[in-house]
Records
---
Amino acid sequence: MAEPALKEESREIFDEGLNRGIEKLTSEKIEQVINAVLEDETGARLKVYVDTCVHCGLCSEACHFYVSFREPRFSPAGKVKQTLWEMLKKKGKVSPEFIRRASEIASTECNLCKRCSMYCPFGIDVAYLMLVVRRICHKLGVTPQYIQDTAHSHSATFNQMWVKDDEWIDTLMWQEEEAQDEIPDLRIPLDKEGADVFYSVIGPEPKFRAQLIYQAAVIMDAAGINWTMPATPGWDNSDMCMYTGDNEMMGRLKKAHFESAMRLKAKRIVMGECGHAFRSIYDMGNRWLAWQMPPIPVTHAIEFYYELFREGKLKIARKYETPVTLHDPCNIVRGRGLHEMARYVVNEVCEEFVEMHPNREHNFCCSAGGGVINCGPPFRNKRVEGNKAKADQLFDAKARGAKTLIAPCHNCHGGLEDIIHHYGLGLELKFLGDIIYECMEKGQGSEM
Amino acid sequence: MHDSSNWDWDIGKKQIADIGKWKDMFEWVEEPCASPDGEKVAAVVKTGDMEFSVCQNGAAWENTFDKVWHLRFSPDNRLAGLVSDMGEWTVAVDEQAWESRFEFVWNPQFSRDGSGITVAAQKERKYFGVINDVPWEKGFFHITNLATSLDGKQTAAAIQTVPFSEGEIFKFQEGCYSVAVNGKTWDRNFINVWDMAFSHDHEHVAAEVRTSLYDYTIAVDGVPWNETFLSVWKPRFSPEDGSVTAPVRIGGKWTLARNGKQIWNSSFAQLWHHIYSPDGKKLAAIVAPEFGKWTVAVDDIPWRHTFGDLAADPVFSPDGKRVACVGKEKEKWTVCVNGEPWNSMSDMAWKPVFSPDSKHVAAKVEKNGHYTIIMDGQALKNDFEAVWDPVFSPDGEKILIRGIEGKGDDAKYCREVLSLKK
Ligand code: SF4
Ligand code: SF4
Ligand code: SF4
């Protein structure tokens, strides 16, 4: 097969990280890095995957990119063919242009959502293979600019958004004050030792969605939870280094996160509504550090809300009347099976729930995940047009009455917002926490 | 450690404060803290609309503030909190606010004897370290990882030395960070600077650095080791000869290096939080001999007992003959001493404390929502509603327990000295 990179030149998207990243590459360097990563860092699993694929194409219909574009190059096996297979076949002897294109495919045309592996008769995990490609590209210094900048932010500040240590604490104090206008004795306890719950969020919350911290505080208060938030780096549970293939930084971030909970002697970590952060602290980051399970148990927001409703700690004053539909985030549904809990919570707080199809572990990804939205504006159109599948799903749910779309994941939010806008869906987008906050009985549980 | 020989070591119990009554005196009372000598207990209290103060042993400070947070006792029993006064932030120590004022202060630290108090501070978008009310002469775009020398007279921090805009990834990769010690910058820039440590003579600083996106090493006083690694963790200075050791990752495994050279033969799935015995002759670290198995290794030899969930908080006995840590297995915590875990399991265990004569180990634990002190595997006292780390007398013959007994209105804070002589 000719090097696919050449075919793509006509539609090449300019990206500073990719285009300038390959400037200094030599074929020796490429060969050395590819072979080093393949030999030292991948095991039998990669070999088995590559050797077992029979090119049957059953995975194609699973991938929203393929379903939306109907081009073989967007099929899961097609992405492997254009990247890893070629690297293996040529024993690492590929050109800088090839690496540019491989990085673009792995970072911006695959969400690592793992839907395809459910449809492959051999369970081949294309997401894992795309992560290997990203790892190689990271080692070669060829990663899209926006997500690389985010990885730099993680390394310098231990959060995604260049939030400085004092800005973080200031934001928490500000949200506490705001919330006190509504519930005068509400607190966001900072650095409190021995709390039952250590609450962690992702970098964009203090920066763009501070009201989510406010809402979480109101929920904790009403449910009478003994909780804390850390006043030190380690508060951000998110992890774009996991997605750029900078595994060493991923480990460093997760160490900081878990150790801030350990330092405060918290019994468990409850995290906000985020999918990829869950994958990072429940699966990838902890394991890179040799913790088989998270050393401090991790509870995703959905599981936490479920628990609060089941135990009667949260009560709904008046159910949310607008009909809702629910987007199942891959990382917590295929990654953790939280879909039934999510439905329980939705039914607790909403009058009318309209399922979208397919759903639960078969749901289509939002196309923002896996770091794709974090690759920024250059790849935005491809991401949104590559998810007509999602738009069709949403149009169908809308036709059956849904007016509000619940997406309990930050990245999904970003991606779905773009889809709603681009396809003119006219759905209102919310987090579960938004609706719970709106509908709950407030301010009776507070424990000092 | 602060000299505790002049504390009240008479056997018996003293009630210090009727802490349950405090909530009738104020709008709210935050979580209390107790002084190391046990004579004082204090909490942030709300005294009015947007008005906060501190209550110590039942009496509120005369001054009130817009906000008070991070209230802690220093090792020499002084009470320090971060306070905001008319929109300006500073540190208040035993009711006295520092003279220097900032837009924000955070991350307070104490020297070993408590005489030095340091914080990170921000004013007009410039960042400083502050030592006992004196800020660095020069401020920086950004500081993190503030570290304080054992004598509390020096601070170091990771600082940004070169400005760049978001998105300037190649500029970032040229190296825009360094270390400032008392405000004076190292000559060399790095891609990143993380945890750092001071030498025991307070003169030298070692830091974890990244010299490219892929090369990690330790820099001492600005000079990186010749060797680079796949990753490193926090370095430490030997108290014996001033050499620097750090956990390093080589070929996917972790081991320990001194001045760049591997010194332990074994390698581990993980190795971090290494500590020296007080005489500097022995080294111990938290290790994972294999994936998902955690323990302590002393001088290259891991204990046979491992924990599935985690091991943490390692500490050497003063004579260097024993090491204790906390471990967690199937969500239950315990203390492990020289590889022998205590039978008593709890919902949380705090860092173990050795007696000065090295004979005893004690730790605060939580079980079913109550707290107690366990010594050498046995519960010393009944349950408390709150308890602080135990403190041994200098001769090791007594132990001081600081705790709150009784609930709600009946809660009382007491200090009690128990004899350990049989
Ligand atoms: S986006 Fe999802 S379905 Fe498509 S190839 Fe990647 S992991 Fe598979
Ligand atoms: S379904 Fe599996 S075997 Fe078939 S093409 Fe896709 S990855 Fe290969
Ligand atoms: S952003 Fe949400 S839907 Fe999209 S990949 Fe992540 S978890 Fe999946």
Note: The pocket of iron/sulfur cluster (ligand 2) is lined by residues A 53-59, 76-77, 120, 122, 124 (CB under 6 Å).
---
Amino acid sequence: METLKNAFDFSDFPRSDLVVAGVLALALAAFPFLSPSSFAMATMIQFFMFSIYGMGWNTIGGYGGQVDLGKAQYVGIGAYTTAVMLIRWDIPFWVSMPVGMCLSVMWSFIIGYPLFRLKGHYFAIATIATSLVLKDLFEVWDFVGAARGLEISPIKYHPPDFLRLIFRDDIYYYYIIFAFFLAGIVYINWFRKSRLGFQLRSIKDNEEVARSLGINVHWAKIKTYAIATAFVSVAGSFHACYIKNIEPEDTMSLDISILIALMAMLGGAGSLWGPIIGAGILIPLKSYLKEWLGARAGLVGIDLIIYALIIMVISAKEPRGIWGIVERVRRRKRRR
Amino acid sequence: MKILEVQHLVKEFGGLRANDDISFSLEKEELTGVIGPNGAGKTTLFNCIAGLHPVTSGRIFFDGRDITALKAHEVARLGLARTFQVYTAAGDLNVEENVMVGCFMRTASRTEARRRARRILAELNLEEHADALVSELPVAAQKQVTMATALGTAPKLLLLDEVAAGLNPSEIDQIMDTIRHLHHDLGITIVLIEHVMALVMNVCQRLVVLDYGKKIADGGPEDIADNPQVIKAYLGERYVAEHTGELS
Ligand SMILES: Nc1ncnc2c1ncn2[C@@H]1O[C@H](COP(=O)(O)OP(=O)(O)OP(=O)(O)O)[C@@H](O)[C@H]1O
Ligand SMILES: [Mg+2]
């Protein structure tokens, strides 16, 4: 009961935030009816997916301060579980998605146990390594199509298929991922106020102090890492049904891991809205750059340069990202 | 009844013996001071007791249990809380939230944690700061917040590491009142490390003196002040000179 109440209680945000959030939510709900281009629809769906990845990352990376650069491996586990189960055994999304989530969480426990013996940069590098190892493995594993990947052929099904999440029109995908997005916000809103959420913020601040306050630091990190993983895996499963053609390269590459972390950091690590703000900026930018660069092959890689610039600016100017700036300005106003 | 018993505690860092065969025990509801020059091994002693450092040898009993091999969070859950010499509080949490982190050790409910945090803040006269970031507060209030956070864990034994360092005399008085209040009214057993002699001599019922990792004296404040070994090792020539000066 209390849990549910906390999850839907946003009252610690100023009224103005809630009004803005409400208006934006309505706009997002109405968006498909404004006859957007298919490019715009696709970009919005990517925005929701990356917001969910980012919200997941934000639990361990933002609230917990453990910079995780290996989230893409869970996009992969989620996507591959759903694709394999559908293609081989015709098992619908609503079954394969929780199965993928369980597999992801199990994998996160296995690697989380040793990973969280590491601190700071060593941790970040180790997460990259585990993700790349998994990608390499999938690239040679025939059962999952090796480097060719897997293809869900829509011809075999009868869209709209709500069980298998096979649709011809993006509008269905849009509303389904929008619902996941809203559920994610509600969950994180509970999480940030929960005991675990408080423990993580204490851990981020000073681990010795956290331990002296009765917090089992290692276990708290592993648990949170599993939560982060579950978020990413769910959106990964969705990715399989939506994209229909998955390869190790576009589900598990380092770019994706970095983009997930970067978005959350740009928007504001350790805040509810941060990852969403970050995705709202970077995903349209990325889509646009991709279109634009399609015509100018010589400029491939410019997106990486932009990411690098963003990282430098954030770490030098405001480690708490855009939301950090908003909060700082507010505090200053209040003190006057 | 003994609440804490330290037996032949040795802690080495490489070749350095930061704690060298230290033994002492505390009765319930005692208020004990640990003093000694810089680098004497006071903080190290706290770290060993609280399970932050594995000990090199020796045993530590808390409330009748052998806690020598326990981890810091396990020791904390048994009811042993501490503050840190340099640390103040979590930067992105406000005062109330900081205290709630402590309270969450005993409850998973946010409502309950907040209720307890508010009670503790009221107890320490910190209510007015509840919404402030710790970094916005004066040093004295910051120190009190660290005490409040430790109190959030509902400890039986509280270890305070230099809570009066860097405070002015009126703030020291205030901290002294707080410590006495915790001890008298709440019945918490307290051990405090302190360089501020006014505080130590005023509030402590008993003093343990360390020098170069060894315990060199243990007794009431008056005995310690007269103990020639302590005067020489810790209080130093200047103190001796001042006091003989006063007498003549
Ligand atoms: N983690 C550590 N690793 C190595 N040496 C340490 C460590 N912690 C403390 N020491 C050393 O142990 C000795 C005792 O240090 P400790 O911090 O316990 O002294 P202290 O009595 O608290 O001093 P102060 O009054 O300055 O706080 C010092 O020589 C210190 O350099
Ligand atoms: Mg010290």
Note: Chain A has one domain: 2-254.
